[in-house]
């Protein structure tokens, strides 16, 4: 599992990510609205919308709120003004960072992202400067006990996963985007319940970061994730797990 995935998982297990953000439903609303705007309001015909709705349900977002987000996106008004935009930059330690945002004001969002990079010793880059390092993949994370991990790993491979990485009792399954839903359903049909399932970006190479540089880097990642307009942050760092655990304590 990549360092960024480990960091996200540690925060999820400790309940830290949602507490820090405090605006999780707002981010989920924007994710649903963007998906509905770009692919249509029918979840049956819009895979991205189905995935966004699944993620919203996983964090206990009310059904009525999910439907309102779809209606806002398909009915014009403020929902029609939202657009997806990607920012690219560099973090301490030579780490490459991709920031996915959903915004109704490019200037505001660009300013917030730029100032966050600057405050945390990073630098906002030009379009295309780091995106070539990342490739979209389906990512399914599974908490498995030692007795079931082998079975889960084999089930993922049989379902058509591109790669399966086992890190202690945590299994990360990577798929091609087109195979994501099929692999996820195949695992669920065998009683495997993912703790996280999404389309995300996987780095082709990683940068090892330790010590004070690791702490500075993670503060930048957290600060970017806490911005209202930011939907997701991807970075190619590799930080030892004992350092991640220490920083999150």
Structure description:
It contains eleven helices and ten strands. The protein is of the alpha+beta class and 249 residues long. The chain folds into three domains: 79 residues, Orthogonal Bundle (Arc Repressor Mutant, subunit A), CATH 1.10.10.200; 82 residues, Alpha-Beta Plaits, CATH 3.30.70; 71 residues, Alpha-Beta Plaits, CATH 3.30.70.980. A hairpin with a 3-residue loop joins strand 1 and strand 2. Helix 3 packs across helix 5 and helix 8 packs across helix 9. The model has no long low-confidence stretch (mean pLDDT 87).
Approximate strand percentage = 15-25%
Report the principal-axis shape: globular
At the fourth level of CATH, the homologous superfamily of the largest domain is YebC, transcriptional regulation domain
CATH topology of the largest domain: Alpha-Beta Plaits
Query: Which strands sit side by side, in order, in the main sheet?
Result: 3-1-2-9
**Termini gap:** 21 Å
Q: Under the CATH scheme, which architecture of the largest domain would be assigned?
A: 2-Layer Sandwich
State the helical fraction.
40-55%
Quick structural gist:
The chain is α+β, with helices and mostly antiparallel strands.
Descriptors:
single chain, 249 residues, alpha+beta, Arc Repressor Mutant, subunit A, Alpha-Beta Plaits, 3 domains, 4-stranded antiparallel beta sheet, 11 helices, 10 strands, 49% helix, globular
């Amino acid at each position: 599992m990549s360092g960024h995935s480990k960091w996200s998982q540690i925060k999820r297990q400790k309940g830290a990510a949602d507490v820090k953000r405090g605006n999780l439903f707002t981010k989920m609303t924007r994710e649903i609205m963007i998906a509905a705007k770009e692919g249509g309001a029918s979840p049956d015909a819009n895979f991205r919308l189905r995935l966004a709705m699944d993620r919203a349900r996983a964090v206990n977002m009310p059904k009525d709120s999910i439907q309102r987000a779809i209606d806002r996106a398909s009915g014009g008004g403020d929902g029609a003004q939202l657009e997806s935009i990607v920012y690219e930059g560099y973090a301490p330690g030579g780490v490459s960072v991709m920031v996915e945002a959903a915004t109704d004001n490019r200037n505001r969002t660009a300013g917030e992202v730029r100032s966050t990079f600057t405050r945390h010793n990073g630098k906002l880059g030009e379009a295309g400067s780091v995106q070539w390092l990342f490739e979209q993949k389906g990512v399914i994370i599974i908490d498995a006990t030692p007795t079931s991990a082998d079975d889960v790993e084999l089930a993922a491979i049989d379902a058509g996963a591109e790669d399966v990485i086992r890190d202690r009792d945590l299994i990360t399954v990577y798929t091609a985007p087109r195979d994501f839903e099929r692999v996820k359903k195949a695992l669920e049909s065998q009683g495997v319940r993912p703790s996280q399932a999404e389309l995300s970006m996987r780095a082709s190479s990683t940068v090892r970061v330790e010590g004070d540089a690791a702490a500075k880097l993670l503060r930048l990642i957290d600060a970017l994730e806490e911005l209202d307009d930011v939907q997701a942050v991807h970075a190619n760092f590799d930080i030892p797990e004992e350092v991640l655990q220490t920083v999150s304590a």
